[in-house]
């Protein structure tokens, strides 16, 4: 009975993947119409559904036409304009009336890649962009538009994306849409799917409202840390937050926000207590100046505090100094040319191989030993170096932990000067925080980039080396907590999914 699910709204509204729930509801109802003995436990594949249920080509049960309104030329008005984006635009006229499925006919990502982020369901009076197809049942008493939408959404990759053609401009055609197979289950079952999907709509709205409220609360508490007036105020704010970790941070977004805040607090000197025995700012200044002189830097006569122009981004603890990245690290870059690739040789790491803090050589290209040695004369990579993408997705810093030789292209290389001055993992942490500002300062049109000069002169808040190590240890501890929170979240979602399965099976029995 439908009321079984309605009664479980409060249970399911937290932590449930609504997209998976919709698919579960759809397939559970469809599976009821298998022949005796055909029932299969769990979600069935599309191939199984089509093999066991009578189906018809979409063109025989629905009218398929292209949208009529040019999206760029549409004038605002009282009618919704369905476009490829999730939100509707506005239009001064309507082209269609009544329930329909709207399918984008161009790839969501383009550039030779077939994909569809979403399709749409629309009722009432509305206009439709010319790059979408309008699909309306020929006989609404035989085929429900909402059932058709849920079916096509659940299996859009198999039914729609697989039919896209083209190289640069990947798209669907009306003819290929017409070949899509549609199982025609009894109309009463289609209506039951409509009712159960209304429940899913309600769950999704409740979940969105709860997540928005939680996000505001989490952000307010995180902001209280950065706005603390003194050390005592900061400790109070941190204690308030830490006491409620497991109730506040219950989404991936909130946990990621916590990670970002931990990183920012760490490089601002607010995460660990200061220790006067670590040394002094003058000691760090002396070492920075010594490095400048040893490297024959043209700015050797400048002090570390004057080597950057303008005011300090924020106030540092007494033991810290502001310097430039090149004052504390040897900042180089790899080749920007394209060597000849070959089937065997030395890996050439590019920005594409830096992902989520890891060096991923799964699809790395290979160059000759001669090219590798030539690149290494300028930028030999060693264990303990830090890599940083200079082009495209600027950032993604990675600490080199492999002894496997490789070269780099369009990647910056930060080499460690002196263990009494810097800790590479502190630099890694700082680059995670600074990447957003670096991206904002990048140049380029289609593909953004940051120059080696800008990287070298970028300001770095530098604490004593011992404090850098304590900061790294504390961040590791808190990142482990974040991973634990994500583990709890995954476990909770698994339990919700199991409960949802039971409720859905009862509802459609």
What's the end-to-end separation, in Å? 7 Å
Strand content: 15-25%
Number of helices: 18
CATH superfamily of the largest domain: DNA methylase specificity domains
Q: Write down the domain tally.
A: 3
Provide the gyration radius in Å. 29 Å
CATH architecture of the largest domain: Alpha-Beta Complex
> What oligomerization state is this entry in?
single chain
Summary, kept brief:
It is built from 18 helices and 22 strands. It is an alpha+beta fold.
List the keywords:
alpha+beta, Adenine-n6-DNA-methyltransferase TaqI, Chain A, domain 2, 4-stranded mixed β-sheet, 22 strands, 16% strand
Question: What does it look like?
Answer:
With 509 residues, the protein is an alpha+beta fold. It has three domains: 157 residues, no CATH class; 129 residues, DNA methylase specificity domains (Adenine-n6-DNA-methyltransferase TaqI, Chain A, domain 2), CATH 3.90.220; 184 residues, DNA methylase specificity domains (Adenine-n6-DNA-methyltransferase TaqI, Chain A, domain 2, Alpha-Beta Complex). The protein contains 18 helices and 22 strands. Strands 2-9-6-7 form a four-stranded antiparallel β-sheet. A hairpin with a 6-residue loop joins strand 3 and strand 4. It is globular, with a radius of gyration of 29 Å.
């Amino acid at each position: 009975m439908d009321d079984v699910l309605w009664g479980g709204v409060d249970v399911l509204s937290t932590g449930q993947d609504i997209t998976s729930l919709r698919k579960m509801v759809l397939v559970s109802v469809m599976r009821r119409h298998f022949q005796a003995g055909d029932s299969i436990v769990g979600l069935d594949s599309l191939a199984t559904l089509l093999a066991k249920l009578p189906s018809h080509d979409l063109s025989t049960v629905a009218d398929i036409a292209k949208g009529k309104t040019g999206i760029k030329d549409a004038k605002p008005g009282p009618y919704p304009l369905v476009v490829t984006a999730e939100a509707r635009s506005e239009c001064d006229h309507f082209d269609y009336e009544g329930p329909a499925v709207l399918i984008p006919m161009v790839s969501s990502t383009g550039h030779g890649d077939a994909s569809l982020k979403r399709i749409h369901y629309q009722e009432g009076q509305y206009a439709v962009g010319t790059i979408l197809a309008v699909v309306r049942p020929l006989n609404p008493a035989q085929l429900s538009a909402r059932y058709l939408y849920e079916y096509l959404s659940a299996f859009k990759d198999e039914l729609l994306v697989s039919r896209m053609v083209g190289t640069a401009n990947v798209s669907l055609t009306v003819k290929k849409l017409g070949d899509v197979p549609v199982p025609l289950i009894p109309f009463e079952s289609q209506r039951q799917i409509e009712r159960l999907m209304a429940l899913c709509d309600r769950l999704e709205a409740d979940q969105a409202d709860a997540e928005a409220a939680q996000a505001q609360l989490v952000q307010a508490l995180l902001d209280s840390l950065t706005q603390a007036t003194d050390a005592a105020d900061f400790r109070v704010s941190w204690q308030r937050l830490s006491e409620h970790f497991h109730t506040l941070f219950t989404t991936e977004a909130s946990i990621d926000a916590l990670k970002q805040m931990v990183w920012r607090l760490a490089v601002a000197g607010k995460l660990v207590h200061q220790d006067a025995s670590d040394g002094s700012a003058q000691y760090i200044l002396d070492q920075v100046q010594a490095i400048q002189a040893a490297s024959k830097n043209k700015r050797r006569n400048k002090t570390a505090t004057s080597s950057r122009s303008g005011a300090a981004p924020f106030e540092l603890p007494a033991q810290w100094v502001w310097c430039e990245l090149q004052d504390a690290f040897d900042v180089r870059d790899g080749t920007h040319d394209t060597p000849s690739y070959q089937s065997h040789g030395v890996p050439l790491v590019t920005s594409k191989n830096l992902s989520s803090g890891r060096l991923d050589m799964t699809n790395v290209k290979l160059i000759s030993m001669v090219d590798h040695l030539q690149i290494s004369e300028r930028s030999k990579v060693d264990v303990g170096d830090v890599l940083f993408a200079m082009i495209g997705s600027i950032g993604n810093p990675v600490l080199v932990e492999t002894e496997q030789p490789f070269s780099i292209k369009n990647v910056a290389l930060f080499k460690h000067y002196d263990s009494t001055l810097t800790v590479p993992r502190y630099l890694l942490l700082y680059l995670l925080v600074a990447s957003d500002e670096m991206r904002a300062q990048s140049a380029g049109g289609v593909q953004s980039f940051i120059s080696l000069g800008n990287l070298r002169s970028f300001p770095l808040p530098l604490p004593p080396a011992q404090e850098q190590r304590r900061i790294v240890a504390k961040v590791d501890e808190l990142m482990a907590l974040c991973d634990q929170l994500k583990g709890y979240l995954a476990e909770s979602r698994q339990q919700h999914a199991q409960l949802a399965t039971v409720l859905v099976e009862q509802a459609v029995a």
